[in-house]
Amino acid sequence: MGVLNNLSTLLLLSLLPPALSHVVDRFNPECNEFFLEETTPNLPGILVGGTVHDQNRYKPICQKFKYTKKKVVYETYMFATLYDTTNMIPVFSAYTFTGFGSSEKRPDKWMIEPQLDGGVEPVMSLEDPGVIYTHQAVNQDYDIDGNNKKVNKGHMFPKVFAHQPVNQDSTFTLTNAVPQVKTFNEGSWRTMELEVKKDLKQCLDNTGKPKAYLVTGAVPSKSNTLNNRVNIPDLMWTAYCCYNNKKKWMAKAYWGWNQEELIKKVLEPHTLAELYKMLKDHYQDGGDVQVFPEHPCPLESFSE
Fold first, then answer.
1. Taking all residues of the chain, what is their mean pLDDT, rounded to a whole number?
2. pLDDT tens for residues 222-238?
3. Which one of 46, 89, 168, 250 has the lowest number of neighbouring Cβ atoms within 10 Å?
4. CA 64, 66, 69, 74 torsion-angle sign
5. E-only strand ranges, 207-279
């Protein structure tokens, strides 16, 4: 009888669909390629040593995008996000730079992550009108209150850093966005992204091809929300690390307050050590912050 039960169990398991989880327990191995040396950031109280502390709240997402090319359907991991289902914004998105392509037209609609609200589809997709989304931001949040709060959808992994058209399209998911004050998004933050874009032209892998690792994150506010649901973060930060054409590792970080800019501002570059100190003061949960491995990424200077 025991043998029959075991055979029945094996048969049942064989009939189940393959595990193509998009929302995962840990980032590895589904999307470790987006982290330098396959090492995820350390954020005290949130993610330490690759383990999420509150797994009911924080969800690692291997951002999978479905597209068609020459009548063939592909499903590909494009970047990685740690998502806060309480604040309904990303903690960070991690992505790689692999060169610049032509800028394509922006999609008409932003997508969502079905699995955060019980969906089974393992790829980002458009909202289902029949579903009430309680664990993530939706387009309606921005449509209803965006103008009132003077915010728009601010990319974490920006379209401008994506290479191919499909990579660019994949950045338009609300699990890769925060409510960003329009004048900040279109002002000092955009200027900073263009400066980083210049830096990234120096970044190469060991075969001479363009390659850099980037992480962009947000520090949530205590009570400022969009549509009484979605946290409007106080601060945004970004950092990159790469091996450059001078055969040295270089790293740089920026951060800025998510608030209205009435005059033109310029965000100053910082070392990784300065970024880590700033984030540690904001998270205030003990332990050290680290975005990239200390070796090879220089802590105290922009390059070794």
1. 90
2. 999 999 999 999 999 99
3. 46
4. positive
5. 212-219, 225-226, 230-231, 235-243, 249-257
